[in-house]
Design brief:
Layout: E1 2-7, E2 10-13, E3 18-26, E4 33-39, E5 46-51, E6 58-60, E7 68-73, E8 78-83, E9 92-99, E10 112-113, E11 117-122
Parallel strand pairs: 2-11
Antiparallel strand pairs: 1-3, 3-8, 4-5, 4-9, 5-6, 7-8, 9-10, 9-11
Length: 123
């Protein structure tokens, strides 16, 4: 079992930055692909970014490419999402997830989810 707890959300003006954290507890964290998804009101949960076990490979949704950076620190069992140049369209609840099978852009393969953290970007 892996337990995930997100933090770092908040209210920020357009153009600002936030750094989200996802702290994991439980076994074998460093063997999982970790990802960030987000869900806006009335919309489905969508893929944002994922990172492999070593941190050497990252994949991003087109909507955040060049603005967001996913990273992980296996010694701290933590995954991060640095969000820069935020836009009102980035407003959503952000969730981290853990998976060990593909396809990693699909929310259906994620076995573990955190409770989410709210990000609100004002215009």
């Amino acid at each position: 079992q892996v337990q995930l707890v997100e933090s770092g959300g908040g209210l920020v003006q357009a153009g600002g930055s936030l750094r989200l954290s996802c702290a994991a507890s439980g076994r074998a964290f460093n063997t999982y692909i970790m990802a960030w998804f987000r869900q806006a009101p009335g919309k489905e949960r969508e893929f944002v970014a994922h990172i492999n076990w070593s941190g050497s490979n990252t994949v991003y949704a087109d909507s955040v490419k060049g603005r967001f950076t996913i990273s992980r620190d296996n010694a701290k069992n933590t995954v991060y999402l640095q969000m820069n140049s935020l836009k009102p369209d980035d407003t959503a609840i952000y969730y981290c997830g853990g998976a060990n099978r593909a396809p990693y852009k699909s929310r259906g393969v994620y076995d573990y989810w955190g409770q989410g953290t709210q990000v609100t970007v004002s215009s």
